[in-house]
Amino acid sequence: MPKVLGGSLEAHRREVRTRVFAVLREQLYERGFDAVTLAGVAAAAGVGRTALYNHFPDKESLLVAFVEEEAARYVDRLRDAVEAEPDPVAQLATFVRLQLRVLAEHHLPPGTALESALAPTAYQRISAHADPITGQLRAVLLAGVDAGSWPAQDVDVVVAMITAALGSRQVIDVPPEQLPEVMETAVRFVLQAVGSVEISGPAPD
C-alpha cells in the first residue's frame, strides 16, 4: 500500500498536490509545457507515478488543476487588495499595480503557446479563470462612473483595452529596480485613459 503523506487521506491529497504543483511551476517556466511529462513531475516531486496518475490522468488535467488553484489564490488576493481601497480611483490603481506585479513575477512559460498545445476544452477551462479578474475590473470601472470619478463609457470595451495593455510583457520587461516607476507610469496611463479626474499616487511600501 502506498505511503500516506500527512497522516490522513485528505492531508495526503493536499501534500501530493502541493509537491506536484511546486515542481510543475518550476518546470513550466524553465522548460515549457511541451517538455513536461507526468513521469518527470512525479520523480522530481518524490511522488509515485501511480499515485500521480490517480490524481491527474494526463498532463493536460495536471495543468488545468494547477491553473485553477493559482487563479483562485490570485483572485482572492486581488479582491482583498481592491476592496481595501477607499475609492474607485485608488481601486483601479491597485488593480493595475497588482496585475503588472504578478505578470513580472510569473513569466509566461516558454515553448508552444498553451492555446495550441492544449485540447480546446482544456484551454477553455484555463481561460475561464480570467473572468473573475475582468469582472473585478468591470466592477471598479462601474463604481467609478457612479461616483463621478470618470465619465460614463462603454465599460466592456474599456475592460478589454485595459486587459490587453496590462498583458503585454514589453511593459514589465525592465530591470527590477525600474519596475516601480514603470508600474506608476502604467497607473497614470490607465487613469488618464478612463478620464479620471484624479491621478492616484504610488502605493505605500
Description of the molecule:
This protein has two domains: 1-57, Arc Repressor Mutant, subunit A; 70-205, Tetracycline Repressor, domain 2, CATH 1.10.357.10. With 205 residues, the protein is mostly helical. The termini are far apart. 22% of the residues are buried. It is elongated, with a radius of gyration of 20 Å. It has eleven helices and no strands. The chain has helices at residues 9-31, 38-45, 49-55, 59-83, 88-105, 114-117, 120-127, 130-147, 155-166, 169-172, 179-193. Helix 4 runs parallel beside helix 8, helix 5 runs antiparallel to helix 8 (130-147) and helix 5 (88-105) packs across helix 11. The mean pLDDT is 84.
Record the SSE blueprint.
Elements: H1 9-31, H2 38-45, H3 49-55, H4 59-83, H5 88-105, H6 114-117, H7 120-127, H8 130-147, H9 155-166, H10 169-172, H11 179-193
Helix pairs in contact: 1-2, 4-5, 4-7, 4-8, 5-8, 5-11, 8-9
Structural class: mainly alpha
Order of helices and strands: HHHHHHHHHHH
Domain count: 2
CATH class value of the largest domain? Mainly Alpha
Average the pLDDT over all residues and give the rounded result: 84
Report the oligomer: single chain
Portion in beta strands: under 5%
Quote the distance from N terminus to C terminus.
51 Å
Number of H- or I-type helical stretches = 11
Q: What integer value in Å does the Rg equal?
A: 20 Å
Q: Quick one: how many beta strands?
A: 0
Net shape: elongated
CATH superfamily of the largest domain: Tetracycline Repressor, domain 2
- CATH-derived topology of the largest domain: Tetracycline Repressor, domain 2
Instruction: Characterize the largest beta sheet: strand count, sense, and whether it forms a barrel.
Output: none
Organism: Amycolatopsis jiangsuensis
Domain HTH tetR-type: 14-74
DNA-binding region: 37-56
GO molecular function, one term: DNA-binding transcription factor activity
